[in-house]
Write a structure and sequence with these properties.
2 domains; four-stranded mixed beta sheet; alpha/beta; 19 helices; D-Maltodextrin-Binding Protein, domain 2; about 425 residues; binds beta-D-glucopyranose
Length: about 425
């Protein structure tokens, strides 16, 4: 037998022997809020990849866009002394649970796989507590998008998504005059907050956004720029249909698909819905960055709670490694509407919206205009976010003046700081 065939037979043996050895078992109960069409498809990829490695997946979905219901359920589980193995959690929430002593770290996996070298530093910092990885990121979602139905826009002679709010209002007025609902929106606090932060960015730019919604600077919160932000929010209130109250975000996306409305202001999980329904970007729907020339960051990640038993501990390690594997990051994000968290995954199979997201992310990092999402729990504590959401929702659903809205916002934040 020559050297080559020896090597070949060694490889053949290892392919026969290794599968049993490398097949990971382990069990994970995974708490998440991915229940819409696109979301379920994406989390299904995680489940089937985990099971393909020999693991047991117990699914614990808690419906409710934005994850507020899931976070309430999580708190109850932890208080009862029965936390899930892995939880979809993000931003400062990761630190809050780590400080409470509720999380296991997965730093051995992260070191062995050199996560530091493949994650953008801004994301790696969010995933770590006291220098150790306690979370694994699945993606990078962009919040500041406008989605549009090109056929609906064509009815009023418009071919492109507006690039500033004045232009947006002009097109929306034309749509209204033609009897078309300009804005598909779901009146739930997190959706109101999503629209609010996107508008704040477009009116004031990245520095204003950061001062007001990340650093919680009183001068920025009470500024004229914030008054203008509320003015624009009031305008948008006039562009939604009668049935907006309480509507789920994916039903608002469906309104764009079905030609019942022209625009939706939502993160790129909306693209996951379009794709799951077989719609193509540039043809059936348009994606365009919302005004602001920046990038509002939202990254989903999984944390690993303190659980008992070898099986679950092993499950945590296997899941962490799987989440960060390049192949999974590609498959998952193709379904989810986001882009990979890893910087070394090629985007060849991704569509033009994802490529634009990646380009703008790179530019925003260079220009220091990457800002974390307040509405999606990347920027401030849940308490502060809750106060901001209350004010924004009250404003949206009342006749409050912008000046009063701004006053309420600044004092609410002050109260909980
Ligand atoms: C999450 C997305 C999710 C969306 C709607 C966001 O906060 O980051 O993954 O699709 O909420 O549920």
């Amino acid at each position: 037998m020559n050297k080559f065939s020896l090597l070949m037979s060694a490889a053949a043996i290892s392919t026969i022997v290794l599968p049993t050895a490398t097949f990971a078992d382990g069990t994970v109960e995974v708490l998440h809020w991915w229940t819409s069409g696109g979301e379920a498809k994406a989390v299904g990829e995680l489940k089937s990849s985990f099971e393909a490695q020999g693991g047991t997946w117990i699914d614990s979905p808690i419906a409710g866009g934005g994850g507020d219901a899931a976070m309430t359920a999580l708190r109850a589980r932890v208080v009862a002394g029965n936390p899930p193995t892995a939880v979809q959690l993000k931003g400062p929430g990761i630190q809050e649970w780590a400080i409470e002593g509720s999380l296991n770290d997965v730093d051995d996996v992260a070191k062995a796989e050199n996560w530091d070298a493949v994650l953008p530093p801004v994301l790696a910092a969010i995933m770590k507590y006291e220098g150790k990885y306690v979370a694994a990121p699945v993606n990078i979602h962009r919040v500041d998008w406008i989605w549009a139905n090109p056929e609906v826009l064509a009815k009023v002679g418009v071919t492109e998504v507006p690039t500033n709010w004045d232009e947006f209002n002009a097109v929306a007025d034309k749509l209204l005059a033609a009897g078309i609902t300009p804005l598909a929106h779901g009146g739930q606090p997190w959706q109101d907050a999503t629209v609010f932060e996107v508008v704040a960015l477009g009116i004031g730019g990245a520095d204003f956004y950061r001062d007001a919604l990340v650093n919680l600077d009183q001068a920025a919160l009470a500024s004229d720029t914030m008054v203008k932000t509320f003015d624009q929010l009031r305008k948008l209130r006039g562009y939604v249909d009668q049935g907006f109250s309480g509507r789920d975000w994916n039903l608002a996306t469906a309104m764009i698909m079905n030609g019942q409305a022209a625009f939706q202001i939502m993160g790129d999980w909306a693209k996951g819905e379009f794709l799951a329904a077989g719609k193509a970007p540039g043809k059936d729907f348009l994606c365009a960055p919302a005004p602001g020339g920046a990038f509002v960051l939202n990254s989903d990640s999984f944390t690993f709670f303190k659980v008992e038993g070898e099986d679950q501990l092993k499950g945590q390690q296997v899941l962490a490694s799987l989440i960060m594997s390049p192949g999974f990051q590609e498959t998952f994000n193709l379904a989810k509407g986001s882009i990979p968290a890893r910087t070394d995954v090629a985007l060849d199979k991704f569509d033009s919206c994802a490529v634009k997201s990646h380009e703008d992310l790179t530019a925003a990092i260079a220009a220091n205009s990457l800002v974390p999402s307040m509405a999606h729990e990347m920027a401030v504590s849940r308490t502060v976010r809750g106060e901001i959401m209350d004010v924004v929702t009250n404003f949206f659903n009342s006749n409050m003046s912008s000046a009063d809205g701004v006053q309420a916002l600044a004092s609410a934040v002050k109260r909980v700081q």
